Amino acid sequence: MAETDRHPVDEHLLAWYRDAAGSKIRHVPANLPDVLKTEAVLAHEYAGETLRTADQAITGTRDQRALLSRAESDTEIALSKEALEGFASGEGMWATLPAATRREQLQVMGRTLDELYPSLRLHLYGANDRFSAPFTVFGQKWAALYLGQRYLAFSNTRHVQLFASHFDDLVRHAVIRSHEVGEFATGLARGLD
Known about the structure:
- The chain has 193 residues and is of the alpha+beta class.
- The protein has seven helices and eight strands; from the N terminus they run βαβααβααββββαβα.
- The chain has helices spanning 11-19, 39-45, 54-68, 81-89, 99-116, 157-172, 178-190, and strands at 2-3, 24-28, 74-80, 120-125, 135-138, 142-146, 150-154, 174-176.
- The longest helix has 18 residues, at 99-116.
- This is Transcriptional regulator.
């Protein structure tokens, strides 16, 4: 059990990412993938946060992006299509985020996914067909289930493989494949014009 502040990239995660350098990372985020969020979206998400400031969230996310930009990086992310559409529509926690900021976020996401493909791949699965709690698999070494203020970390090979298998199931049932998600995000951005 690893205690954490509410923060997109805390020291536990960065240590696990560093430890898994050169290995495949599989990630299911709690909402949008932090490594693809713009500073404006991070600032909105962490406005009024008492444990971590928006600036700390932005700095932590930059650190994680630096790890992902290494040549040996191989990262896959699975997100529900509905979560991305809900962001575009300004639903839930994004209701007070201006449409222009959401449009910019989707444009940046689309460009980033196209530029970093295939070392960074985002798959969109259907929430009506599949469900997943947020977790990350760090190569064959670790799996971390995000519970909010703590991570439940697993190093037992069988448990890590169980999480990897769940992730692979989300990818197999993706309704929008990784090579198509950049254009899908850009299309959602155009819908906000």
